[in-house]
């Protein structure tokens, strides 16, 4: 397949020792039943064309540089196998990614029925409930073959805590939107974690400040009682130093 954005899995351009690049790279895995359109969606996003033929995927990796909400990032997209006999690696694919797109075809009830299993597998492998996931109902250009309604898709996504969008890899409808909304969700969560870490550290700082301040008050009382003592000068100096230290906190 000639695809300039397709990357070799052994050397996909992400140097894990390069912190700056890594922080700017978002790893997204595309999961779902075989034939639902995972590869077609990914290629439409990365190379702007629709692949008509069906060639079941074993595992492919794609990279695309994008600017979303004026912030540049690299999407490192893992296109996975949906065919049952090729899914032995699925735990490993999930473990290596931070955000997920679960794809079903609106023309296939059985692909929709598997969505919950994919979601449960993600939660089990990552060992957490809250994971950024976009549920995609693909092939919505094939309205006459529809087996899953938009409401069913939306309700399931809501029930399982996922984002939702219907797409068409053929017409490119909502392809960028689905990936971009997932990225926004990933960023929101990342910032949420950072904000709560910042808050924790500022809470700790103010606790330390309060403890030291109350001890300084006690020392000041002792100072006033020992004003005539010989050692008072160095004692006063120490208190002044502690006072200065507090003002730095
Ligand atoms: N009409 C229509 N056909 C689509 C769409 N997306 C994919 N297809 C077709 O569906 C078939 C399967 O698409 P793929 O993208 O290869 O499916 P996949 O999910 O990657 O399948 P696996 O790699 O086996 O897991 C191909 O023939 C595509 O051309 C779509 O949005 N509309
Ligand atoms: Mg594929």
UniProtKB/TrEMBL annotation:
GO CC terms of this entry: plasma membrane
Main location: membrane
Membrane topology listed for this record: Lipid-anchor
EC number of this enzyme: 3.6.5.2
PROSITE patterns: RAB, RAS, RHO
GO process annotations (BP): macropinocytosis; signal transduction
CDD domains in UniProt: Ras (cd00876)
The UniProt record lists the keyword Membrane: yes
Compartments reported by the entry: Cell membrane
Region (Disordered): 1-21
Low complexity bias: start-end ranges: 1-18
Key word Hydrolase present: yes
GO molecular function: G protein activity; GTP binding
Keyword annotations: Cell membrane, GTP-binding, Hydrolase, Lipoprotein, Membrane, Methylation, Nucleotide-binding, Prenylation
One family name in Pfam for this protein: Ras
Catalysed reactions, semicolon-separated: GTP + H2O = GDP + phosphate + H(+)
The organism's place on the tree of life at top rank: Eukaryota
Family: Belongs to the small GTPase superfamily. Ras family.
Record function comment: Ras proteins bind GDP/GTP and possess intrinsic GTPase activity.
NCBIfam families: small_GTP
UniProt protein name: small monomeric GTPase
Organism: Cavenderia fasciculata
Gene designation: rasZ
